[in-house]
């Protein structure tokens, strides 16, 4: 293999690793947002029950 080929392969592997890390971060942010919505809904229900 030539240096050119090895550098191209290395570049592709680095790009894939970066994209995988971004995917995990985005998935985690989605889960955090869903948890925030659920907590807000639960708090609203508790306030409504307390008002009755």
Q: Can you walk me through this structure?
A:
It contains 1 helix and no strands. By secondary structure, it is mainly α. The mean pLDDT is 89.
What's the short story on this structure?
The chain is an all-alpha fold and 52 residues long. The chain has one helix at residues 3-51.
- Calculate Rg over CA atoms: 23 Å
Q: Largest sheet, if any?
A: none
Shape label? rod-shaped
- Structural class call reads mainly alpha
State the helicity in percent bands: over 70%
Low-confidence stretches: none
Keywords: Signal
Protein name: Entericidin
Signal peptide: 1-23
Task: Write the SSE topology.
Blueprint: H1 3-51
Question: Which terms would index this structure?
Answer:
52 residues, 94% helix, mainly alpha
